[in-house]
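User: Fold this, then the next.

Assistant: Folding the first:
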Amino acid sequence: MKENGSFDVRHDKEEYNIYGFLNNHPGGINYLKPYKEKDVSKRMQDTKHSKAAYYLFQEYNKNGKRTSKGQDDEDLEKLVNWNEPMLSQVGNLGINYKEWVISPVDRELRLFGNPMLENLTITPWYVVPLIWIPVISYLIIYGSERYIKSTHNPSPTANIVLHIGLGIILWSFLEYSLHRWVFHMEPSGKSKVMIYLHFAIHGLHHKVPFDTRRLVFPPVPAAIIAVVLYKIAAVLIPESVSILTLSGALLGYLIYDMIHFYLHYGAPKENSYFYHLKRYHNQHHFAHHDSGFGISSVAWDNIFGTAIKLRKLNMSIKW
């Protein structure tokens, strides 16, 4: 939902009110302040704003209409009805889906027409720690008790911490793998089922990156995935170890989800770890959709050669 306020700029003889975008701009507020009531056309061209940035910019046109003026691409939002549930529409986009889904807009999105199903897809950020911290705590306590009984180890602390730490590392690899090879699969324009699946699990986040209700993973599907992973692990390793490893993996997931929300709406201090992560994730959303898959860490991007090289800044960013 766009905020009320005024921060007008001009571009290609059109006027835009980008007040609602000030805190979301990848360059921060300090890059935008000098351009209030001024023309930004040359600045956007000189800084080589991405295609996605130009597309998003049209959301703030003061005449209330999107225009492709000055761009080669049509307004893809004409292909869907934003007043209707989106999941039932995306399959009809066909070959246009890939371009549409990586062209961001500043709106709230309704996925299902059924209110009960829709509510299952909407998750305020604070729900995640409220649900998962007690679950993780229980698994660590229960798993530790089972581990002590099964090993008769009088000093089990180091091994327990090791198994939990292993779970965190496994999660970080799973985070990267899911994001790269599942969430960013490229569905064929001929397969409506694959388009529906892609949009439901991740495409919608790239389409509406500022929708606060869709920045963390809903608990129900997260719980289903956790149970499946636990069942697999229980076949391969002793139950007590699998419980501890699962608790570590869930802790890693919890940290990831909170970091992801913070990277969209937090204001990290200059040169901090999260400062660089926020810049990195912004690049993934608005310029490099096919790289930069790490969210809580860039380690696996560096290992697999998908890292984004951040350009040197002329000034610090203040979000």
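Now the next one, as you asked:
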Amino acid sequence: MAKDMTLLWGSGSVPSWRVMIMLEEKQLQGYNQKLISLQKKEHKTQEVLDINPRGQLPAFKCGKHILNESYAACFFLENQYKSQGTKLIPDSPDAQALMYQRLFEAVPLYQKIVEIVLYNYRVPEGERHDSAVQRNKEGLTAELKLWEGYLNKTDCCLAGKEFTLADVLFFPNVAFLFRLGLSSERYPALAKYYNSLKDRPSIKASWPPHWHEPPELDVMKTICYLNPAQWIY
């Protein structure tokens, strides 16, 4: 089955990592894969464009089906391989509703992370505007405040005790935050979640190779709130 799949991926690409975790959870190892260098702009080569005309990663083929959006790929794999590997959509209506709510709520979180990273990485320091920096920080801080509250009310995973599709899609966001310097002391619930899952076999097996080296950016170290009434940046 996995031999009919092809994944072109980038090290540290959160969407790529989601698909890789999913493939591990569904016991679909042995798929055709190639590490694409984002630094060398290999994601704009014809090899990638033939699968993903947007020139983005991942570029994923499952048989004759092309699924380049990580959410789409993960849902497709769960539906196609329900009886294989980890069951990632719970039967309980309560857990299922919470899982769907949290996994789609993770979309704006990732967008806010990317806004900060791209502004710091692509805009020269002398051309950055304080108002834009502040606005981006405020957006992410408000989002993280929500997730701290959510995770304080759950067990080890987003929808309860069981690892679900929501965790497949959400965990790489959290790992990216801590990779970029988010404070464990300031965000203890997020840190607990991260530490409880980072050694899960599917996550360890697909860990971004270059993340074993020190990060180039620490843009999240100043993201902080003290309490709901007092914000510090």
